[in-house]
Specification:
The protein is mainly α. Helix 9 runs parallel beside helix 18 and helix 17 runs parallel beside helix 19. The chain is globular, with a radius of gyration of 23 Å.
Amino acid sequence: MELSWTSLLPSLLAIVFAIITRKVLLALIGGIILANVLLFWPAPSNIAYGTLDSTWETLIDPGNMLVWFFTLGIGALFGVLEKGGTFKQFVLKLERKQWIESKRRARFMTWFLGVIVFIESNVTIMISGTTSRPIYDRLGISREKLAYIVDSTCAAICILIPLNAWGAFNLTLISKQGVDQPLMVFIQSIAFNFYAIFAVLLALFVALFDWNIGPMKAFEKNAVPDQVSKNPWGDGPDETATFGKGTAVVLTSLISLVVMVPVMLLITGNGVLVEGDGTLSVFIAIYIALGIASIGTLLTQSVTIKDIVEYILKGAWNILPLAVILWLSIALGGLTRDLGTGEFLASVLDGSVSLWMLLPLIFVLSAITGFSIGSSWGTFAIMLPLAIPLAMTLGLPPAPFIAAAISGGIFGDHASPISDTTIIASMASGVEHIDHVRTQLPYALIAGVGATLAYAATGLLM
């Protein structure tokens, strides 16, 4: 069809509606319906059929089926670990390790935990926060400082080491945009994920040198050693003979998850890591880890097979909204390609907007979207189908554009008071949520400004 400004409307509707209502699912559905209206107007029956057909074909696509089952598998895995009691035992055991005797070591330990446990951001935050909190209280470090370090490190590192749900989610979105060698391009984009890189390095600097700015100064000044720490897992299992075995179940399942992804990439890529099937590799790794967690929980805990099945179903149910978001975003991405959105944007921007401004604009727009809806997943789903076609139409490398969209989503989500990771960081650290938001925001803005300048410089070099 003829290129027109109307091709922007489905994506713009999704962005604006998501910002206003914070309902990503409804925003994506609205975008899909509007795209079909533009494609088939003025035939109502064709519009209805096109809407149903585009979503149904996306759902039953064989390649996408792996993604749906992978997504539900990650929810099932953590359902077994958490509901089965082994994860609670793991956290309890880590909490009771009080061998850190200086403030710098305590802060660095929190940062290091966030780096090495990169499986899932919320799990990483819970492990780092609940492990470090008693030590921070004992040494007189503010819990607000703890919340900042765990939030800045855990969320950012999960996108820099994408052998996790975030990696598979974004890899799927990228591959559905017709990118050649999507895994290789995704790996290349990590080097341009400036906000995540700056956030992790800034958190390390704060951990090592105790740099306090803004409201953080007052909280650090008022922190008193030997505060009473409430155990967030107080309703968890007692320390029994199975205590160490439960911890071993968690470690074995998580380690297998980390190890099996690159192993399967090598197998599916005939010995070449970057040529492996990323979605299939993560799918297999997830279900191996789920099998280990299920069998280990049965052997070490007082649970039955019926209990394990219940934990699997509840965990999968809890993550179902993510699978639906991914499904609808893939459908919308296909429709925007049919409308020629990327080609139209390229024709408008070519000559009217300097190329060096494109990356900063994508980063800022993605950041605003992420901040407003409080969801990095939703932001990725909306922004990647816009950024990638724009780069490909202009004949530019897609990796920096992918990174700008993802990086902006992380920044917006990181700074947003309605973000799930921000809320969980407050809970894990035991602080008032608004205090965490206030103390973290100055550091996030510093990393955000740095990322904006870095994208401008990258654009000048393209």
